[in-house]
Every structure is written in structure tokens, then in C-alpha cells.
Amino acid sequence: MRMLGVLGGMGPLASAEFMRALTLETPAERDQDHIPTVLWSDPRVPDRTAARNHGGPDPLPFLLRGIRGLEAAGCGAIAIPCNTAHGWFEAMQAATTLPILHIVDAAAEDLRAQGVTPGSHIGLMGTTATLAMRLYQERLGIECITPSDAMMQSHVMPAVGLVKANRVAEAYAPLAEVARNLHAQGAAAVVLGCTEIPLGIAAGPALPFPVVDTVAALARSAIAWALAERASAV
Fold first, then answer.
1. What is the DSSP code (8-state) at residue 1?
2. Is 224 found in the same domain as 181?
């Protein structure tokens, strides 16, 4: 079975959580049952939100360097545990013959698994860049309820920064408040569309409505790929 490549470091804690979810959710009884994986964790990738919103340094050359490294390592597919990086998905996919597992597709599968019907209203939390690029709205083909600009600036983006600064517990209250607000507006489920957000939400009491942890959803997508690879190799 070919190895899974993980293009990470955006941020490092989200990549580590992806590896944890990948390990815990893989059906395995011994070491050898787990998925061979190469993690390329490069926190030097320029900030994706700054690149999209403020003309900051382009992250694409760093992303492509990581892809080349994973190709050289013999990987058979790539997962990217960073939502905002998917704003460069088409350019990355065009640069490699390896399939890149799209995090929005993984979130859509998780919504289906939780019984959220296509006609339901979905809440969406993410970075300002992810929301501006309409990554979820376009790929899911639905309009999503998103936080107000004021909430983004006062709650979401500061909380993402807290997680990146390893102050995870402090991120729970503002993130939970935003998620509850989206649910109160009619969202049947809330997609945690930034891989730092599930980490903050997990630091406190579980929310009383469906949420999509995009880190875990992407891990399950990677497991499905690996199991299909394993079956085809038999």
C-alpha cells in the first residue's frame, strides 16, 4: 500500500491533531494495520489569510515544494489539514498527478453521515480568507450562514490566533459563542471550516447540535482512500 502524504504545518497543532485523528479512527489491532504516512510539516508557509486578503507573500511556492517532497517520498495521495490552503487547490492539483483529498468534500461526507439533508441551512465558521474565497459555498453548492464581520473580527480570528499561540483553552468561549449564534439563526449543523477551530471547540463542553470537525473529517477521507488502496493491493 502506498503511503499517505500530509501537507501540513498550517498550523503545526492542526497537523498533529490530524495525525492523532488518523491514528485513532483507523481500524487497527496492531502497528502494522495503520496507514503508512509521511507528514510534511512546514510552518514557514506564508500566512494564507494575509496572502488572500492583504497581498501578503504567496504561499503557493512553499505548498508546491511540500508536494514535490511528498512525491519524492513515494506517497500515493495527499491530504492538507488546512482549509484556507485549499484556496490554491487547483494550482496544487495541476502540479501533481497524485490525488489531493479535498477537505470540503470530506466535510460534505461528514454532513451526510450526520443526517444533515441537502436542503438544510448550514453554518460555516472559518478564516476571513476561507469565507471570502467561498470555498465551501461554491464546492458544496449551497449558501451558508456565516458570522457577521463584527463577529469575525472580535471572536473568530482572535480565537484562531489563540490556538496558533497554543492558548487553546482560551479559544473555546468565543468560538462556542459564534457557533451557537449560527445555530440560533437556523443552521442545522455548523462546519468548523478552519482546522484550528475544532481544537478550540474541543477544549470545552460539547455543543448541543451537530458540528463538522474538518480535521477529523479529512482524516476519515484519508482512511477511506487507504482502505481502498489496501483492498486493490490484495
1. -
2. no
- 87 lies in the same domain as 155: no
Q: What domain range includes position 41? A: 3-102+216-233
Identify the CATH number of the domain in which residue 179 sits.
Answer: 3.40.50.1860
CA 165-168-172 angle, 5° bins: 130
Q: Is the peptide bond before 5 cis (omega within 30 degrees of 0)?
A: no
Q: How far is 100 from 79, CA to CA, in rounded Å?
A: 6
Q: Domain tally for the chain? A: 2
Q: Residues 175-190: pLDDT tens digits?
A: 999 999 999 999 999 9
Interacting residues of 154 by C-beta distance below 8 A, sequence separation 6+ = 174
With a CB cutoff of 8 Å and minimum separation 6, the contacts of 216 are: 21, 25, 110, 198
Q: Residue length, the chain? A: 234
Same domain as 148, residue 122 = yes
Residue 91: C-alpha distances to residues 63, 85, 94, 106 (Å): 10, 11, 5, 20
pTM of the model: 0.96
Pair 197, 225 in one domain: no
Share of the chain above pLDDT 70, in %: 100
Count Cβ neighbours within 10 Å for each residue of 18-34 and write b for 16 or more, e otherwise.
bbebbeeebeeeeeeee
Residues 222 and 193 in one domain: no
Phi, psi dihedral angles at 73 (to 5 degrees): -80, -5
**Side-chain half-sphere exposure of 13, counting CA atoms within 13 A:** 16
